[in-house]
């Protein structure tokens, strides 16, 4: 019977999605334990578990895990989850596979804000060391400036979308213009900066999970988790956008408000993450495409699984960046760019069957 065949295929599809989600979650847990264990100071897995369960402030393991590795690991998880969620949501909102925080100019806006603070003395460069490369006298001035200009980019996109109609084409074109504008601004600041300021500007643009501490983690988490809840609650509405604005409106969806609010949430989430840890390339662009090939385009599964996959990929990349050339530690943004570019080219070559 045709109905029976449809039911069997549906069950197989559902089981495939569940298995994929469970597999990514298990890999993420394994990656967390492994990331805590490895590094310049190796800690056995059993010692990791015992240190996490029973505190011993005098132990070296306690200091390494709680003060050095856990903040970095959780930062990578939250940043990867937030950027992947923002990328998946932007691609759905814009109905465009190139939608991501980077392509809309938000990341470049944050980089310009940081460069402006560093070149004008607001975030003075204290010293340059072999271990940390660059130290800042006032790192929060750099963060605040980066966050402010990220919001400026967000405001410009939302304003012109509202003025001309919140169409996907308007937002993409505004993102291209903003990328060019802020990229030119960064180049101009570097031209007039001295050697130490240029080094600081370049160093800040490298995404690095070690830049955030427990306070920054709290702020990022306070935005990331509500954003996940918001997009999950509106997953059906975002599914309707794929059928076109007219179809979505006929089903009772306020398309313009849905699109603007979604873009605002994504932009705020990206602005906070980028302002704290710098630019992380390709995570928000590539992860939703990878997940889409396994679970399809249903936003009810795409968004939460993108969160898990993004957290796993960025944590794995950060762990590799810490250990590949130990004791030298690479900024994770370099590794994600090297990984993301060929992977995205492969996805483009394979086709766009889900679009």
Would you spell out the secondary-structure blueprint of this structure?
Layout: H1 2-37, H2 45-53, H3 60-94, H4 106-120, E1 125-127, E2 135-136, H5 139-164, H6 168-192, H7 195-205, H8 214-233, H9 235-241, H10 245-250, H11 255-277, H12 283-295, H13 299-323, H14 332-350
Helix pairs in contact: 1-13, 2-3, 3-8, 3-11, 3-12, 3-13, 4-5, 4-6, 4-7, 4-11, 5-6, 5-11, 8-11, 12-13, 12-14
Could you characterize the architecture of this molecule?
By secondary structure, the chain is mainly alpha-helical. It has one domain: ABC transporter involved in vitamin B12 uptake, BtuC, CATH 1.10.3470.10. Helices cover 76% and strands 1% of the residues. The chain contains 14 helices and 2 strands; from the N terminus they run H-H-H-H-E-E-H-H-H-H-H-H-H-H-H-H. Strands 1-2 form a two-stranded antiparallel ribbon. Helix 5 packs antiparallel against helix 6 and helix 5 packs antiparallel against helix 11. It is globular, with a radius of gyration of 21 Å. The protein starts with a helix and ends in a 5-residue tail after the last helix. The mean pLDDT is 82.
Please tag this protein with its features.
mainly alpha, 355 residues, ABC transporter involved in vitamin B12 uptake, BtuC, two-stranded antiparallel sheet
Give a short summary of the structure:
By secondary structure, the protein is mainly α. The chain contains 14 helices and 2 strands, in the order ααααββαααααααααα.
